[in-house]
Amino acid sequence: MGSGFTESVVEEAALEWFGELGYQVQHGPEIAPGEPAAERESYEHVILEQRLREALARLNPDVPQEGIDEAFRKLTRISSPQLIDANHELHYYLVNGVSVEYLRKDGSIGYDPVWVINFDAAPGEDDANDWLVVNQLTVTESGHTRRPDVVVYVNGLPLAVIELKNAAAESATIWSAFRPLQTYKKEIPGLFFFNEMMVISDGLEARLGTLSSEKERFAPWRTIEGEEFASASVSQLEVLIRGVFDRRRLLDLVRFFIVFDSDGETVIKKIAGYHQFHAVGRALDATLEAARPDGSRRVGVVWHTQGSGKSLTMAFYPGRLVLHPAMENPTLVVITDRNDLDDQLFGQFSRCHELLRQKPTRARDRAHLRKLLKVAAGGVVFTTIQKFFPESRGDTFPLLSDRHNKEEAPWPR
Asked: Does any domain span residue 393?
């Protein structure tokens, strides 16, 4: 893109890249209320209801219509005085399904979750999700009318908003795209109930953040496949769209790499950076290989620079492992050599317990550690290395578990 490009040119390029990734592309005015191809009853409706209903039925074929209707109701009637709290609740529904009660065909009562997104399709397989990108979507709420540049929908839910500005305009910077997002959150918050990520770009630079991200937390995405940094000749926006919104990577980001962190007063939504996402992917592959019957039992080392988010990377890693079928609900032990580091990591993991699907525990002493490790499956245990030392000279290490992992077929990252 040359220096004379306009905002509309950037927008058209973005839509083209999404199309190449397999998204359907629609223009907001074409699906607006009253149009022949309308998908919204009013400008206040940000969910594409027909797409959502069809996805719920398609992904949950064994759930009767009343169960689908109840899941739809729960998804579309969220109300909270705090946007971040509504977003947190809906993120939980996205990754864990919507819990509903329904009558099965055999007369029994079902409590199975109704899935909103299919996360488990293997690479190259049809994931049965509905992928759509819409530009210039007019939204009205509480007397305010706004028109975000690009909205990314999955199964009728607006999961991402992209705001673009013209870098060629006088005094324009990437933060010219940041400011409208703050206005949108205040004036049309309903668009962001389901939001998982936000993108800002001036056509030259591009950065990724979340609903709660301040300026300094919007970060570039520097690689597409994770093998190497993208060439400087490729625009940052193209790298980010191809790197983040590739359908398989987006599913993994939503499921495994988003956490809600809180200091007790403020809730902060965090998403992995490119280095964390790809490091954990490599670590997962190495773990599966090392855990095979003929594996080396040695996974490897992940190096971090200071300030690169190693505590979160460490939380993202078990978040992926615990749901991988080949690991058969593993027990994880986090060992440190300093009490202050143990405190720091235990605190981080505790705040990420939703990602881990369990709350971590802490060994008080050696005997307690042994007791915690004598489990059939599951568990995240923290300990300092000295708790592995024998209690006395005659103390011996008992067998804690005879579990082993059987070899499984490869599983998608």
From this structure: no
